[in-house]
Amino acid sequence: MLVYKKKDIPPDPVFPTDLEQLGFFINDEDKIRQIANPDAGFKFKVNANERWNDVRRNAYHECIRRIVISRLEEVGLSTLRLPLGSQPNDKHVPILVSSNLPTATRITLILGSPDQDLGIWTYRSMAEQGINRGSMVEITKEILTNKPDTAMIIANMGQLVYHCGSGQAMSQLTWFALPVETAAHPPARQTWRNLIPRNGNWREHVTCIFEDVLAPESGMVNPEAKIDIIGVEEGGLGAVEYLVENWPTWKPSISGICFSRPQHQKHNLTLDSTDDDDDDDDTVPEPGSFAHFISTRSRAYVLSDKPLEWPVPGTLQHGCNTYSGNEPVNHEDVIVSSWQSMLQWFDKVYADPSYEEVEFVIEERVEDDEGWEKWRRGEIDAVDDMRKLAVVDGEA
Predict the structure, then answer these.
(1) Which of 171, 228, 250, 390 has CA atoms 20 to 30 A from the CA of 258?
(2) What is the CA radius of gyration of the chain?
(3) For residues 200 and 235, what is the distance between their CA atoms, to the nearest angstrom?
(4) CB within 8 A of 392, min separation 6: which ones?
(5) Is 185 within 8 Å of 12 (Cβ atoms)?
(6) Using omega within 30 degrees of 0 as the cis cutoff, is the peptide bond preceding 186 cis?
(7) What is d(CA 137, CA 121) in angstroms, rounded to the nearest whole number?
(8) pLDDT at position 396
(9) 210: Cβ contacts below 8 Å, ≥ 6 apart
């Protein structure tokens, strides 16, 4: 058995959390580019050792996180620690809220993806379209500048692991890049000490925001305020799972919901359904129910190469009208191309409390050699066909 002494093992890599020292700069298009090659952006694999690549990427992401939070604070957001009342040295998770939260007549709640850091849509979009575009800076500017009666809450769905040493919440990806004894050592083990009270996962985090921040008795918001919800991937699922269980309480307050790449299914919209229920069921929801609200005052944006807002299949699956997000490849970029459409639609439904979307169903076209249709009509038997093919192959 080979035994390596500590002095023979490579030390854990260390990279500065400074863009210039890492070899990058921000160009005139707000994109981060390499100083040595201004036409090239960040490249992940620069070393055969994955540990080097992971730690370097985290240092690069930390630079971006600081820039994004700084810009969000400049346009009017501030940090609120959850659970409420947490002190800086307590285990907590930061979210971002606007100063007009107690008085605003409208509130936009953004429940982002658990795969991303606070205030960030996607790092890929920042590389391709610029920092403001790939983060929540642009949508924050749009709302706080042009909608003075609207407040903002940005949830922190991805940074729910508390690191006691640094006194901050972080993502799993950041946790795995924390310093260790040598480059060969595994990441630090997580225990109960790293759990944040009432925010141990993204489902608990959604519940905490509704019950500690948005609830009228919290004193944090205008009790008469109407709430618009943007749910990105699991963020939307978290809103659905919470609201379906508490709909009588929240029905007067929720104005509309928009989903980006929704993760919920139609059976999630009722309490008495199961995973085995048919999500293609076209039964009309009972008026006043949560499922009826989703079908009439919610909409979803999904991957599609069609123009933005083009009706696409998905209504029977998600229980609400489904539109193209004008993004054909990268699912996390759907929100980047569709949030402006969402805000325009929120204005429409807020202006008319009786407004209801007319449900449409778009059938997905399946192009094949008519084999599927013949099988569906019972004209062919797939098992027999496979047996015949096997015989033919054997004879050959």
Answers:
(1) 171
(2) 24
(3) 15
(4) none
(5) yes
(6) no
(7) 10
(8) 47
(9) 242, 246, 250
Amino acid code (one letter) for 148: P
Kind and range of the H or E run holding 34: strand 32-34
3-state secondary structure of 256: strand
The whole-number pLDDT of residue 72 equals 98
CATH topology for the 76-351 domain: Rossmann fold (3.40.50)
Report how far residue 215's alpha carbon sits from residue 153's, in angstroms, rounded to the nearest whole number.
13
Yes or no: say if 177 and 54 are a contact pair by the CB < 8 Å rule: yes
Other Cβ atoms within 10 Å of 199 Cβ, number:
27
| Strand partners of residue 93 | 82
How many angstroms separate the Cα of 16 from the Cα of each of 20, 62, 112, 123, 158? 9, 10, 28, 19, 23
DSSP state string for 162-186: EETTTTEEE-HHHHHTS--SSTTSP
The count of residues in the chain is 396
Q: Which regions in the chain score pLDDT beneath 70?
A: 1, 273-282, 364-396
Nearest Cα neighbor of 301 from 329, 335, 270 is 335
pLDDT digits (tens, 9 = 90+) for 142-188: 999 999 999 999 999 999 999 999 999 999 999 999 999 988 889 99
